[in-house]
Design a protein that fits this description.
Layout: E1 19-22, E2 25-29, E3 42-46, E4 50-54, H1 61-70, E5 75-80, H2 91-95, E6 102-105, H3 111-114, E7 132-133, E8 139-141, E9 146-151, E10 160-164, E11 169-173, H4 191-202, E12 208-211, H5 220-243, H6 249-256, H7 265-282, E13 285-287, E14 297-299
Parallel strand pairs: 4-5, 5-6, 6-7, 11-12
Antiparallel strand pairs: 1-2, 2-3, 3-4, 8-9, 9-10, 10-11, 13-14
Helix pairs in contact: 4-5, 5-7, 6-7
């Protein structure tokens, strides 16, 4: 029986409007809906007076204008970036024209992989470089808010969540979303790191997650456990495909993603590749040459 993930997609909102969603937390949603962003990028504002902004979003002048209107009469003191996909960090450049706030992130696109000697040359905001590098456990503070940095590589190698300590609320970026699983796309995406990052969340006591896309997650550990089980199920599907004589990712995707629109197959193939990389590292699968989308896989 397939893992039943408790997805939730319902969200009442208006584009361009700052809505109070929790004490000291506001959100403005950019009008960039897509199969990968749901309704769009949700930019969060923490605190009052001197505020922090999480994920300014795409390079969208209208969204930045709405964000600035939301904090009129206040000062943005910190800009926090979960990761450097094009719907999260490019808005920093536009926002910098109106504020002297410094940006905080794990590093530029691919930073976590570059540290391992693995080049990452595409798929993200290559123009972004944070003013300040943050690491796991670092604490950033404002007048009426403080956040702990929680390093969660996997979706990207520089993915950072931010925990609002006053509320046991975790801003999860794309690491954990309530409406969809995260795409893990090598080389920057890494399934082993992603699984470790999910396990890390199970050891925390956060009571609510605020992802950058979609509604709040009110029972976070149940969702995280379901995501872990889902990935284990995908691994089992891959091994079953190989046992049944299906040895390439191109052949696996239609079998594993029945009911998924074909235009999503390329993204699905990247996730299958990430899972296969993990299986090869673990010694469950093997191939001749490099692990890639075109390789032929067999039991190790």
């Amino acid at each position: 029986m397939a893992v039943q993930i408790p997805f939730s997609r319902k969200l009442d909102f208006s584009y361009g409007t700052a809505e109070q969603i929790a004490p000291g937390v506001r959100r403005v949603i950019a009008e960039n809906p897509s199969p990968f962003t749901l309704y769009g990028t949700g930019t969060y504002i923490l605190g009052t007076g001197r505020v922090a902004v999480i994920d300014p979003g795409p390079a969208d002048a209208a969204h930045i204008a709405a964000l600035l209107k939301a904090v009129e009469g206040e000062t943005i003191s910190h800009v926090l970036v979960t990761h450097t996909h094009m719907d999260h960090s490019p808005g920093c450049a536009l926002l910098s024209e109106h504020t002297d706030a410094r940006t905080y992130a794990y590093g530029p696109h691919g930073a976590g992989k570059l540290e391992q000697g693995v080049p990452v040359e595409e798929g993200g905001d290559m123009e972004f470089a944070p003013d300040e590098l943050v690491r796991h456990g670092d604490v950033l503070e404002g007048d009426d808010w403080s956040v702990e940095c929680v390093y969660t590589p996997g979706h990207t190698s520089n993915h950072m969540c931010f925990a609002l300590r006053e509320q046991k609320a975790l801003f999860t970026g794309d690491h954990v979303m309530g409406w969809s699983t995260s795409i893990i796309s090598p080389p920057d995406g890494d399934m082993a790191a992603y699984m470790d990052s999910l396990a890390l969340l199970l050891d925390r006591d956060d009571e609510v997650y605020w992802p950058t896309h979609g509604p709040a997650i009110r029972d976070p550990k149940a969702l995280v456990r379901a995501f872990i089980e889902h990935r284990h199920e995908r691994e089992a599907q891959i091994l079953s495909c190989v046992d049944e004589g299906i040895h390439t990712i191109t052949e696996m995707v239609p079998v594993m993603y029945k009911g998924t629109p074909e235009f999503m197959y390329p993204a699905a193939a990247r996730s299958v590749l990430a899972a296969i990389e993990y299986l090869v590292v673990r010694g469950d699968l093997a191939c001749d040459g490099e692990v890639n989308l075109d390789a032929t896989y067999r039991r190790a």
